[in-house]
Amino acid sequence: TRHILLHLIGRLARLYSRMGRPRHRGLNNVSRVLTHMENNLSSALSLEQLAHVGGMSKRSLLRAFREATDGSPMGYLTTLRLEQACALLRDSDESVTEIAFRIGMNSPEYFCRMFRRKYQTSPLRFRRHNSTSSSTAHAGARPLRRSCGRTPGGPPSR
């Protein structure tokens, strides 16, 4: 439910950005940053780059992003990447290393650590229990209780 709320906040930010009112300028900037993140998941993105995309200082971006999403830009980006990884683990036969690089994490070890921290399981165990790919699916395997969201690239859940 929390990821649905954050998804709605992102959509509202985009709607307000189209209104062009000065008091919604921060949401307009956050909307541009959100769109850039979603379109560039596999790229190395820094806070400086995101601030530039939003036309803000790093401090202003952090403040506006926290107001809009109750989180940080880099935390949001990591969650978007992990959600994409879940879809790839479920639906492809790519190795964990290939998936890590594909979602913009240049260290498979870091990817596995972040995945385990968020979902309390390893990427391989998640795949074993949730795969739709014929070569990795196991008959009778039950899905993990705490698994990735069902909307790849969707908003983060905390």
Write up this protein:
- The protein is mainly α and 158 residues long.
- The chain is built from eight helices and no strands.
- The protein starts with a helix and ends in a 28-residue tail after the last helix.
Give me the count of strands.
0
Amino- and carboxy-terminal Cα gap: 10 Å
Radius of gyration: 17 Å
Percent strand equals under 5%
H/E element sequence: HHHHHHHH
Give the count of helical stretches: 8
Helical/strand content category: mainly alpha
Shape verdict:
elongated
Provide the helix percentage: 55-70%
What does the main sheet amount to? none
Extract low-pLDDT stretches: 135-147, 149-158
Average pLDDT reading: 80
Features:
158 residues; mainly alpha; 8 helices
Write the layout of secondary structure elements.
Elements: H1 2-19, H2 25-39, H3 47-54, H4 58-69, H5 73-91, H6 96-102, H7 108-119, H8 123-130
Quick take:
Helix content is 63%, strand content 0%.
